Q: What sequence folds into this?
């Protein structure tokens, strides 16, 4: 009887241990994991390097609006005068899109949120920055 109880207790402990160490993701399209159990996509994401210096804008990278990611701006190649432009903040901190020319546009965008601005009615090149992170700079071309 003692032997049966000991085997049963060991079996229960083994089930608990295996359950605690198992992957809780029920998705059948999981990426394969390396020998340490880290998903390859997680490793690639953590090791990816920005394709440009942080804080700079990438003209033409966004056809819909301004995207903030990795403490940098991606801007459309050009926008129309008076166009309402969407700003998407994909970072985990608040940013702003603030015109270097006082009063043209100034919008704070919380982490993960979307806001809009109306671009100037006059064609030209308009530089902007983030008031929270001065190294972040971008340019809008109005045609």
A:
């Amino acid at each position: 009887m003692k032997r049966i109880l000991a085997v049963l207790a060991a079996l229960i402990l083994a089930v608990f241990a295996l359950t605690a160490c198992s992957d809780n993701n029920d998705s059948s399209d999981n990426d394969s994991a390396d020998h340490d159990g880290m998903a390859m996509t997680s490793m690639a994401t953590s090791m990816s390097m920005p394709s440009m210096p942080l804080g700079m804008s990438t003209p033409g990278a966004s056809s819909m609006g301004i995207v903030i990611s990795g403490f940098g701006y991606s801007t459309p190649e050009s926008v129309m005068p008076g166009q309402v432009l969407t700003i998407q903040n994909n970072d985990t901190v608040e940013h702003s899109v603030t015109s270097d020319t006082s009063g043209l546009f100034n919008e704070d965008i919380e982490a993960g949120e979307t806001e809009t601005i109306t671009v100037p009615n006059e064609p030209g090149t308009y530089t902007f920055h983030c008031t929270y992170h001065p190294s972040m700079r971008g340019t809008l071309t109005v045609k």
